[in-house]
Specification:
Keywords: ATP-binding, DNA-binding, Kinase, Nucleotide-binding, Phosphoprotein, Transcription, Transcription regulation, Transferase, Two-component regulatory system. It catalyses: ATP + protein L-histidine = ADP + protein N-phospho-L-histidine. One of its GO terms (molecular function) is DNA-binding transcription factor activity. InterPro entries: CheY-like_superfamily, HATPase_C_sf, HATPase_dom, His_kinase_dom, HisK_dim/P_dom, HisK_dim/P_sf, Homeodomain-like_sf, HTH_AraC. It is built from 24 helices and 78 strands. It is an alpha+beta fold. The strands form 19 sheets. A five-stranded mixed β-sheet has the order 1-26-25-24-23, with no helix packed on it. A five-stranded mixed β-sheet has the order 60-66-65-62-63, with no helix packed on it. Strand 44 and strand 45 form a beta hairpin. Helix 6 packs across helix 13, helix 10 runs antiparallel to helix 11 and helix 14 packs parallel to helix 15. The longest helix is centred in the middle third of the chain and has 77 residues. The radius of gyration is 55 Å and the shape is elongated.
Amino acid sequence: MMDRIARLKLVAPGQRTGVWTLLLLLCFPFVTLAQKLRFDNYSLPQGLSQSTVVSLLQDRQGFLWIGTEDGLNRFDGYTFRIFRKDPQDTLHSIGGNFVWTIVEAPDGRLWIGHEGGISCYNPTLDTFEAYRVGDGSATVRTLVLEPDGKGLWLGTSGQGIFHFDMATHVLTPYINGTKQNLGNNNILHIIRHGDGLLVGTRGGGLFLFSADKKFRRPSFAQKDSMLLTANDVWRIVPRKDHYWLGTQKGLVELDANLNLVRYVPLARDEQPTQRVSSLLFESDESVWVACYGGGLVHFNPLTGSYSFSNHAAVNASSLANDLVFSLLLDRSQNLWVGTWVGGMSKLRKGHDNFVNYSNDDIGTPSNFITAITSLPCGDHETLFIGAYGAGIRTATLDDIGNLSFKKYDPFPPALSKSVDLINSFYQGSTRLWIGTDHDGLVGIPLRAAGCLEKTNDIVHYDSKGDAHTLSNGTVKAAVEDKNGDLWVVTVGGGANKIITREKFGQPGSVIHYLNDEKDPASLSHNRVNTIFKDRDQNLWLATANGLNLVEGNGFKRFLQGKVITLFQSRNGRLYAGTEHGLYVNEATNGPFVFREEKLLAAQLINAIGEDAQGRLWITTNQGLFRFDPTAQAIIQFRSSDGLQSDEYNFNASTPTRTGHLAFGGVNGLTLLDPQRITLNPTKPAVVITSLKLDNKEVRVGPVKKDTLTLAKSLGETTALSFHYDQNYLTFEFAALDFTNPSKNVYAYMLEGLDNQWITTGATNRSATYTNLDPGTYTLRVKAANNDGVWDETGKALTLIIHPPWWETWYAYTFYVLVAALVLWLARNFVIQRERWKTELQLGHIEVQKLKELDDFKSKFFANISHEFRTPLSLILGPTERLLSESDGAPTQDLVTIRNNGKSLLNLVNQMLDLSRIEAGNLPLQVSEVDLAYYLKIFAEAFHSMAQQQHLDLTVNIPSEPIRGYADVSFLEKMVNNLLSNAIKYTAQGGKIMVTVTSKGGYIVLSVTDTGKGIAPDQLTRIFERFYRVHETSSVEGTGLGLALTRELVKTHKGEITVESTPGKGSTFTILLPVTKAFYSPAEITTAPGETESMQKEHHEMPSPAGNGSDPNQLHPLLLIIEDNLELRAFIRSAFTDRFRILDAADGEAGVKTAMSEIPDLIISDWMMPGMDGLEVCRVLKTSELTNHIPIILLTAKAGSDSRLQGLETGADEYLTKPFDLKELTIRANNLIEQRRLLRQKYSQNGRSLYKTVKATSADEKFLERLRTTVEQHLQNSRFGVEDLSREMGLSRVQLYRKITALTNQSANEFLRTYRLERAADLLRQGVGNISEVAFQVGFENPSYFTKTFREHFGKLPSEITKG
């Protein structure tokens, strides 16, 4: 680098130099030159904790440590980790934030000097230990380790020197008490000197602290009071038995005996001296000097020359600040410069690989360099540079590559004014040919051009738009062929061949070559980027669509796409640079065949140069590549490596006689010497910087429950263990090579999982692994530096994922033992099973016969009950009606018929229930209900029966709800049987008590009577089927009630017990579980509350409402479908006074009647010839015309399966024969009332009929279709009911009854209401005035519209508009 700057010799004094010599040196006028260096700067925006950097250190791992005024920073090239004093954790945090000095001990610990004392950083534990120095007010500004590493020497500001014993932590103070400077104990720097120390002070100069722990002045300092007694000595640097001092007044060199060798004040302009804060030897001839206020100085001790680098506000790559305070040269030879309030700057190794010249250097208005060439003039060499909009600039190139620029205008006055863009230069045999933009081709004699002489011998070939001049004035390149003719290629005008022996502009002087799509031998494209003549005199044209070789009067085509540049290497290889890569023809003889260079695939090639080693230098839009064709090796340089930018221009390049290469780009000119390119040979050390578990960083710390911590830092860790569920891991890493971290490349592999290395860039320096199976893995990470040098050793970290306990070796041992035991048990079971099998086979025939008998019995009971139910209905139904219609007391015969009929029915039901329980056809169906409510209803229903027998029935059931899960039908039968028996077997005047309590998830139901009681020997048999106590033989009964009750309780997972004393009475107690946990999901039928509400409605049987009894209303229409004539007449007689009645004898007739008459209610039998009740229900419920009609289904099938089947087809109610006539009428009235409420829902005030809602039922779907139909014809005032019924596909009567059934409005009322509500909404939206809205909704007369609107809404349309 010193070769690139001006040299300045300094007079060096002899070994002994006096004061007068020093004064002479101080007054000597030295001229220094500023040096243009390119820095990378770091401050707060990049993550630095504070911008004053006073100390720098690179530790043995490679981390960079930065001491600032506000915290200690650790830098890995990408991120700063900041350490500050933590008042909440003084035991483990740094003791002060203003960090002045950092040293590393042999054991890897860092010792930090800061305000108030020192701190020791333990990299293993990632913690600090702080020690106060003196009274805690002094700042430790310098530290020196003892040779044995057991102690530290501390230099403080104001309190002298201290010695710190690392083992005992004892601090010993030493105060400077010399007569020369009694009060000066402000220490700036100390270093070891033999057995003592050299001490630099502020204002007191240099002291020697001897082995006897006393201060004295060096001999030279005793003689001189200017340099070393009244001076600030900021830095003392030993170098080859000499000492260099950075002082307030410049540099001072001392010999081994501390005698003055020379003094370098670093004078600059009007500043006679510079304050030197630090200095750093790069080599014997290269010293970096930190000048506080003067910037960075590069000093050559051998020649005495130096140069300054300073901050420039307009240049972001200049020095961060001129207040330079600290320096560091890292292991990759990058220079780090710490400044006061400016952050820090980095000068990269190889920073002088490339020299860039911008428009400020060249003297052009633009940085866009379009063309370059080089011409000799005697022993000198001149570069010709074409810049956008600036014509030609020239630069004189000296032997060491320095350039000096000036403008060159060889053109005649007329041409000079228009030529401002140069496309190319070509050195012909006698002339320099200059391709211009729009002004054709200009030729200047080579001698005159090379020496920048003025000449009138200028040739100008331009375009006149005819066949005898150039085809286009924008010339991209020119070349002379072997015949001396000149070929000129243009943009859009193809190629031109100028016959030089003919006069330009005359016929035959120019031949044009243009593209002809019909001629494959023509030029492939009229835009030609360049033309090139190879060593065999072949002419090659690079066009926007392929490469063309001149053959006779035509062209031979090669390649596809845009070809930009052409180049032939020294070994004869022809290279073609294209928009998508580099192609080469290696054959020197024979046919031309181009192959792709894979290493440059997809790169846009702008220009190519070659160095002395045969390596190609290739510019692209992604920087500069050095490509070795022989070794097939490539290195990429980017703007971050010092290039003018990453983008270069087409064919803007040239070699020089000195071996330099020049390239033109979009941001200036780049000049390089291929032989002096310095690459980075340092293998980068790789460190794992962070571990994250489940995206949370894991840090060093004590062991915590449920929290993963590290026992020591990742840099000191070789293995990590994780639980089986701690397997979402992210590792972050960094290569500690700071030359150009953005170009570092990483590769990682998890051995045990990955089969190959995974490569990643600097922007994604992490590896994430999820769902790792238990096992042992090794994470390996390696890195390459910015120039592709790999550290193959890298970093290895063992990861152990422990298995869960059930996958451990002892678990598997247990599994084996259990498996062996299971096999042994299985073998014994097989043997025993064979025995059982034999026994079972013997009893199989008997069991099968019993099963067949049981099945026959169940079927028999089911069939006989079905046959009994219909005649019982015809017996009990008319009997009940006759009893209700009798004016006086009912006849005893009717009462006898009713009572015995009900007894027979009860007997049939009990027999059927028992058979169904045995066959498993009476499943338990529980739901959450209020148990107290139902039990009270069931019990209190027996009050009348008890009163008839003159018994006192007491029901002791809590009034508060008892919620639980139960089958209400089971409860009803249990209560009925127990109370029936109690009343039956208790004499007149006796008492019966029903008690219900709740106890721990159970209910306890007790029925106590004062009857005859049961003998103890008969208690065990009373629950047997058909068994009757001997003492009660005179009382009628079948002996089925208690048997059925026990089966019901057992099915309900409960228990029934009895306590009895003969002559005093009996107590039956039922214990039932009522919590959900006792029942399987299949036994829980309905969501909580739904069954209860349905069953409450059934048992409360509300009075009918809205049943048409109002004489002003039309009675509802009832359709009865029943094949039994007597039953049909019986049902008809019950509804004559409240309904209009239609009937049908079978299902087909019933469906036809329902379709035509649209009744309000249908009562249908299930079992009928032809179409049964289920099919009737299905047909009517799936028809849009009749799906709103409620249907009551009557059947003799009493099972829950039959009931569910009927309800699933759409039946609204389901009654089992024989039915209670009163219950039938109540259910019918309830359904009529529900339909009335539904009509009210659609006709209530405030509900808009025209607004659509989500159609969730068949009724709403019908209304939605109705609304849509009306909306489509809304503006048609003549659209009436007839039209609506036709559009809906219904008769007028059907439409009328359907709309009335759903909305309680006639069809006309519905139409009028819809139009009015639509109008109101349009008025609210402000769609139009009242008349316009009236016409939009089908009213022809606005006055009539206003009248009707007011009648409907109670206000005028104008009031809605205002609102």
